[in-house]
Structures are given as C-alpha cells and as structure tokens.
Amino acid sequence: MDTRSASHIRIDGVNKEFVSGRRQVVALQDIRLDIPQGQFTCLLGPSGCGKSTLLNAVAGFSHPTSGTITVDGVPVAGPGPQRGMVFQEYALFPWMTVEKNIAFGLEIRRMPKERIAATVEQLLGMLALTEFRARYPKDLSGGMRQRVAIARVLALDSPIMLMDEPFGALDALTRRNLQDELLRIWMETKKTILFVTHSIEEAIYLADRIVVMTYRPGTVKRDLIVDLPRLRDPASAAFNDLKRELGQLVMEEQQRHHIDERRMAIVD
Ligand SMILES: Nc1ncnc2c1ncn2[C@@H]1O[C@H](COP(=O)(O)OP(=O)(O)OP(=O)(O)O)[C@@H](O)[C@H]1O
Questions:
Q1: In the predicted model, is pLDDT for residue 2 greater than 80?
Q2: What are the structural domains of the chain?
Q3: Smallest CA separation from ligand 1 atom 30, residue
Q4: How many CB atoms lie under 10 A from the CB of residue 67?
Q5: Which is the closest atom of ligand 1 to the Cα of 218?
Q6: Which residues lie closer than 8 Å to 186 by C-beta, 6 or more apart?
Q7: Cα of 18 from ligand 1 centre, angstroms
Q8: CA 256 – ligand 1 centroid, Å
Q9: Ligand 1 atom closest to Cα of residue 20
Q10: Beta strand 66-71 with 74-75: parallel, antiparallel or unpaired?
C-alpha cells in the first residue's frame, strides 16, 4: 500500500462557533496542533468538549469559523481522498455484501477489476473477514461491522485515518481485539491516525500522543507523549500512573460540564 503521500496535519489557531437559538457555543478556541506523518494521536475529553467538531473540521465536513487546517501545506477545503473517516456507527450499505461494501469506493474510482479483487482479498484476510464476505451487514455482529467499516477506509488507502469513537459501541473484549488489530495495521502501514475517544484507557493503550481537551470552550488542556512500549499492559504501574493523571484532568472538565448543564437548566 502506498503510504508516502500527504499526511502531515497542521491545525493553526482554529476556532469554531455554533449559534443555536439565543445561544452561542464556542466549540473550539484557538486549537494549535502539529501532527506529523505516522503519528497516532488521540483526542480525549468528556462529552461536549469539541472532539468531533475538530475531527469533522480536519475531515473537511465542516469549516472552522477562523483559523486554518492544512495537510502537507494544502488547506483543507472539503473532504478529500487523503483523509478517510471511520464513525462510531458503522456507515455500511445494508443492501451490499461485505465484499461489495469494501469494493464500493474502488469501483467509484474506476480501479481495474483485477486490482479491486486483489485489494478486497487482501483486506478480507487482514481483518479476518474472509469467511463472512458474502454476508450482509444485518447478519454481522457489531465488531464485524466495524471491521468492514475499517476495511472500507483502508481500501481507499488514505494516508490519514480519522476515527470518531469507532469502538465506543462494542463490548470490552471485541473492543480490545479491534484495538490490537488497528495497532497492527497502523504499524504495518504507518498511517497518520487521529482518533477520538472519551476512554482514558483506550487512549493510553493506543496513542503515541494524547491531546486532552477542555469543556466549552474546547481548548487544548494537555498535550502529552505516551512513551510506554507496545503492546501496553493496562495492569502495569506506569499505565496506571498515567491513567490517574489523565483521570484527574478529564474529571475537572467533566465537572465543568455538569455545572454548565445545571446553569443552563436554571436559565431555561
Ligand atoms: N451543529 C451544532 N450546532 C450547535 N452546537 C453544536 C453543533 N455541533 C456541536 N455543537 C456543540 O459544540 C460542542 C462540542 O460538540 P462535539 O460534538 O464536538 O463534542 P464531543 O467532545 O465530540 O462530544 P461527544 O463525545 O458527546 O460527541 C458541544 O457543546 C455541542 O453541543
């Protein structure tokens, strides 16, 4: 797979405001992040701190109110082939089989049939889906559906993968299996990954770097490098030290969230 193309993300002074009714929400305020090629970065924080807003802006689905986002120096003006997105809800076509779902993006790109077949074959193997190739999404477990969603993005060979709580709806065991698969794929392909989660453990297990965000306005509260060797052991002392430190930071923001909700209930 070609991973040499564009994949350095630069987020420079990004602000995003939403107006809903009488209220103005500052979802992002002055976000500055430089994400080098091949880095696995997790955006961590409680609900409402702007993680999805930032990811959607990098994807090009929505535009910042001000500031710029570039990929290898080129401003993001909309969705683009170098940025693949995996959502929490597996965005599969229910009327297509597993292999058709994986092939779809390649057919749109008019890739030659033999190359599509070879790519689909490789991905079915990589994600342990070969024996489920003829099934429809409704006949798959949540974990398998998410595997198909990941395979679909990998098929397009985007050098950047944007993942919005992709394992949030899965049970603990399936989640850990998919985390391990994602790590293996990332090590093989060296894609740049920007991954949203509100799970502290998931962030420490996966990331090279964790960016903790504040609740309203969404700013960078802490930006740290995780230098524990992989595969990481959630039972180790170093893992738990970091978990405690991050837990404290996230808790502070969660409390601000609760206070804000109570205040709004009184105002309403
Ligand atoms: N389209 C919108 N219109 C108005 N406000 C919005 C809109 N999208 C997001 N917001 C607000 O912006 C803030 C950030 O939302 P966002 O969804 O990015 O947070 P998040 O950290 O991803 O939370 P979650 O984990 O719940 O998805 C929230 O206060 C949210 O209510």
A1: no
A2: 1-82+207-250 (3.40.50.300)
A3: 48
A4: 18
A5: 14
A6: 40, 193
A7: 9
A8: 15
A9: 4
A10: antiparallel
Residue 267's pLDDT band, with cuts at 50, 70 and 90, is: low
Instruction: Provide the 10 A C-beta neighbour count for residue 227.
Output: 9
pLDDT higher than threshold 60 for residue 268 = no
How far is ligand 1, taken at its centre, from the CA of residue 152, in Å? 26
Asked if residue 16 has its Cβ within 6 Å of ligand 1, the reply is no
Q: What are phi and psi of 76, to 5 degrees?
A: -75, 120
The mean of the pLDDT values for the chain is 92
pTM: 0.92
Q: What is the mean pLDDT of residues 59-72?
A: 96
Q: Is the CB of 18 inside a 6 Å radius of any atom of ligand 1?
A: yes
Among 52, 195, 200, residue to substitute to test ligand 1 (most atoms within 8 Å of Cβ): 52
Average pLDDT rounded to a whole number, residues 207-217: 96
Q: What is the mean pLDDT of residues 117-140?
A: 94
Nearest C-alpha neighbor of 155 from the set 134, 182, 124, 128 = 124
